[in-house]
Fold:
Amino acid sequence: GSEDSPSPPALCASGAGLAALMTGRLDAMLFGAATPAPTRIAVQTATPTPLPEKTPEPTPMPYIPSMEKVVFPDALQERAVRSALNRPDGEVTLSDLGGMEELHVCGTMVLTDLSGVAYIDGAYTVNGAKPLAGPIADLSVIGRMPHLKRLSLLAQQVRSLAALNRLMLLEELNLSGNETVDLSSLPVLPSLRILHLEHSSVTDLNSLLQQPALTTVTVSGDMLPLIFPDDAAFDVVLAP
Structure:
């Protein structure tokens, strides 16, 4: 007889499998193949650097005179301050100290300047009179005189100078005749130009390199030999 046409391959699937297969094909026909969502590439943008805020200039604190009573460490300092203030009686306040620009003592004598001072035969004289050695050692009250420009403490008992750290306007300091002074304790004084050390116990001037305005240091022959830096900006003068 005649040749039979080839039979299509048999489709073997269970009822559930066939339903799933048909559902998948229907979804694909209706909605197309699912494609993954494109990955968003994060574009990094430079964050603008904020301009630094301008810090306002600090307003300087106004000078407020203090009415606090001054307690003097010794009678000589009280006498010298009262003489400079022309105030023989009554309280002396910190406000009063703020108005002082000069203070001069030699031994136990209170002076207005050093015009009559001389050094003769190993001792200081004032207009020919020989004062006793002075007792001043504590400089805490003198250190509260912010407008002081010239300070003379000849033939006293000064050792530490640390209390002078507020004397920003001090231009001339005379420590002659202080046999126990520790020069390394002198704080930086930005206005200090002239320093007198004659007949003192100082042996080393290296610590003076930190004084920015210093121009002249006066010493005496009885202090030699002295240690001082070769590259110092100040002159070392030998007193006659």
